[in-house]
Design brief:
heterodimer, A: alpha/beta, two-stranded antiparallel ribbon, 11% strand, B: alpha/beta, 7-stranded mixed beta sheet, 13 helices, globular, binds thiamine diphosphate
Chain lengths: 329, 347
């Protein structure tokens, strides 16, 4: 599939994947600060559930490479890679996860409720909850006659929820510029796709809603880029919604602290051996990219994340009374 | 023919977490009644995110212990159908905050089955779920929502504060011919990663016993003030009562255990003696359990020495950052301060 995307997109996708991975690499030790030796979710500078997206970066970058700030993205409880690819403010996002006043919502939402109106990004913690709002954003763009699109990311587990089927039907009936992107990491918490989904491929479900359905194999940023590019262009032309299912993997547990007893022996090692980020770097080198350019992109990406975390750590906590602000507009 | 030795030997107390107590009750009832089955997300292989079904898959197999897709409308609706067919489903939907996606199956189907059928068809199902915050999981994973469900006719709603009651309540709930929402508080679950109030880990008989649905308990006797509580707030009330005893304030603590049906008489009897009423509840303040308890006392014309008060979660979404969340959550300090104020003791 290489060649389908241009060089600058490919370099951006690589750098953005590295940025996302580094973001999570910094979360890991920070999350366990104060939580060891006895793991208690409430303790430390990063309390609460923490869902990492290591391994799923190609889904985010391959789609978001085609997006502009005016396009809408709704993401899930596993939002970091998508948020970063959509251009959510990195410092404010890190500060939000640390519960600081300078966070995206001043510490009210935390990791599962990142909102950045500047780039039309939102996410939430109820499964399949982002699909309806994406249909609404897409309808707004159709009614206003602009060429923005709305993307809803969801997990393969979420495709079994009523909201998924209702939203796809509605998007199709209204012929809105929406693209539904399923990240198929094979598990909904401990339940494997095999054990809970009647079809082998969720992409096939698109047929029930008279929209194109695409399956992207191989957890490959270039392949995602090509398919997403076509679907998004189609939406911008006013030809209606599409469904894309991307084969990906979750290199970590469902949340941090997950013992992962439901995984077959050796699965994680096997997945790590096919980590999409080093594989993509190798491909870019084969395709003639200069190692020095990739190194520089990596260094810059890491530096941006380091700066965001330094900002977040140094930032002040909100005044507790601020809890009462913004309940109503 | 027991020897004096064995008769006098003290059996070491068997201490269970609420999670273990729930799993034991379900397992015991599955042994006794082949119509009982369990289903929900991550309840089979994982044994429940909060440990409520640990070990059941191995004992009863995948026919009776079913991991479901993330299809709440379907599997909770299916539970209503199973119940109508004479089975006794125990269903888990892991956080009460998620109930919105399938509310129709709960409050229009399950709750109205008996009524709409004129009593022809019952709905013996248990829907268990976790409630409560305090661990930085933000507004879609930390709500209590007791009153939301207590408000809906046709549903029974229970919330144990310790393992003994959890086991007996679960056995009663499964045998009950009505839909029972069985709420367990995350802070009492005995899952290490959530932190645990030690007092919730109690002895519980190995055999069969029920804690009746709809009956409150006085868990500490006192003379001066009645503190009505449920779930986690029982422990906050008990902690406060312990401290206040040193100040010669005698606090009576009522554990509601069940909010639907609500045992108004136990509360009234206590307040008749003490003349003071404080309700502690980690659900949203307005239209809540506190309001209902206070109304129940006022309606009975019970003379009060001071106006009744309530401590609850304010009418805001649960904030993520701990500096805000712990500022607004009820705790033993707030209970202590309220009691002192009601006893006119300055701090
Ligand atoms: C309506 C609802 N039901 C259940 C949950 C609990 N839950 C959180 S994540 C999850 C699994 C989601 O799986 P999937 O959609 O495949 O996304 P992934 O976690 O794999 O990214 C479940 C069941 C929830 N958050 N919302």
């Amino acid at each position: 599939m290489s060649g389908a995307s241009n060089a600058s997109d490919r370099l951006w996708m690589y750098a953005t994947m590295v940025k996302s991975r580094h973001f999570e690499a910094l979360i890991k030790p920070a999350y366990f600060e104060g939580k060891s030796p006895v793991f208690n979710m409430a303790k430390g500078p990063l309390p609460g559930e923490m869902h990492l997206s290591d391994g799923q970066e190609p889904c985010a970058v391959g789609v978001c490479a085609h997006l502009r700030p005016g396009d809408t993205v709704t993401a899930t409880h596993r939002p970091h890679h998508v948020a970063i690819a959509k251009g959510v403010d990195l410092g404010a996002m890190a500060a939000e996860i640390f519960g600081k006043a300078s966070g995206l919502s001043g510490g009210r939402g935390g990791h599962m409720h990142l909102f950045d109106a500047r780039v039309n990004f939102a996410c939430s913690g109820i499964i399949a909850q982002g699909l309806g709002p994406a249909v609404g954003a897409a309808l707004a763009s159709k009614l206003r006659g602009d060429d923005t699109v709305a993307i809803a990311f969801l997990g393969e587990g979420a495709a079994n929820q009523g909201a998924f089927h209702e939203a796809l039907n509605l998007a199709s009936v209204w012929k809105v510029p929406a693209v539904f992107v399923i990240e198929d990491n094979a598990y909904g918490i401990s339940v494997s796709k095999r054990d809970c989904t009647a079809v082998e491929r969720n992409a096939d479900r698109a047929a029930a809603y008279a929209m194109p359905g695409h399956f992207v194999a191989g957890n490959d940023a270039d392949a995602v880029h090509a398919i997403a590019g076509a679907a998004i262009a189609r939406a911008r032309r006013g030809e209606g919604p599409s469904l894309i299912e991307i084969e990906t993997c979750r290199l970590e547990g469902h949340f941090m602290g997950d013992a992962e007893g439901y995984r077959p022996e050796g699965e994680v090692q096997r997945l790590k051996a096919s980590d999409p980020i080093p594989a993509y770097r190798a491909r870019l080198l084969t395709d003639g990219f200069e190692a020095a350019d990739l190194d520089r992109a990596e260094t810059d990406a890491r530096a941006a994340v380091d700066a965001a975390f330094a900002f977040a750590r140094a930032a002040a906590y909100p005044d507790p009374e601020e809890a009462f602000a913004h309940v109503f507009a | 023919m027991s020897s004096p030795d064995t008769a006098t030997a003290v059996r070491p107390a068997r201490r269970l977490t609420i999670a273990r107590a729930i799993a034991e009750a379900i397992g015991q009832e599955m042994e006794r009644d082949p119509d009982v089955l369990v289903m929900g997300e991550d309840i089979a292989k994982l044994g429940g995110v909060f440990g409520t079904t640990t070990g059941l898959l191995d004992r009863f197999g995948p026919e009776r212990v079913r991991d479901t897709p993330i299809s709440e409308t379907a599997f909770i609706g299916a539970a209503v159908g199973l119940a109508a067919a004479g089975m006794r489903p125990v269903v888990e939907l892991m956080f009460v905050d998620f109930f919105g996606v399938c509310m129709d199956a709960i409050y229009n189907l399950a709750a109205k089955q008996s009524y709409f059928s004129g009593g022809q068809v019952t709905c013996p199902m248990v829907l268990m779920t976790s409630v409560g915050g305090g661990y930085g999981d933000a507004g879609q994973h930390s709500q209590a929502l007791y009153a939301t469900f207590g408000h809906l006719p046709g549903l029974k709603v229970v919330i144990p504060s310790n393992a003994h009651d959890a086991k007996g309540l679960m056995l009663a709930a499964i045998r009950d011919p009505n839909p029972v929402i069985f709420m367990y508080h995350k802070a009492l679950q005995g899952m290490g990663w959530l932190g645990t109030v030690q007092r919730s880990i109690t002895d519980a008989p190995e055999g069969d016993y029920v804690v009746p649905l709809g009956k409150a308990k006085c868990v500490r006797e006192g003379e001066d003030i009645t503190v009505v509580s449920l779930g986690l707030s029982v422990h906050q009330a008990l902690d406060a009562a312990g401290r206040l005893a040193n100040e010669d304030v005698s606090v009576e603590v009522i554990d509601l255990i069940s909010i639907a049906p609500l045992d108004r008489e136990t509360v009234r009897a206590s307040v008749r003696r003490t003349g003071r009423l404080l309700v502690v509840d980690d659900d949203y303040l307005s239209y809540g359990v506190g309001a209902e308890i206070i109304a129940s006392v006022c309606e009975a014309s019970i003379p009060l020495l001071v106006p009744p008060q309530r401590i609850a979660f304010p009418d805001i979404p649960v904030p993520f950052t701990p500096v805000m969340e712990h500022f607004v959550l009820p705790n033993a300090d707030k209970v202590t301060a309220a009691v002192r104020q009601m006893m006119r003791i300055s701090n």
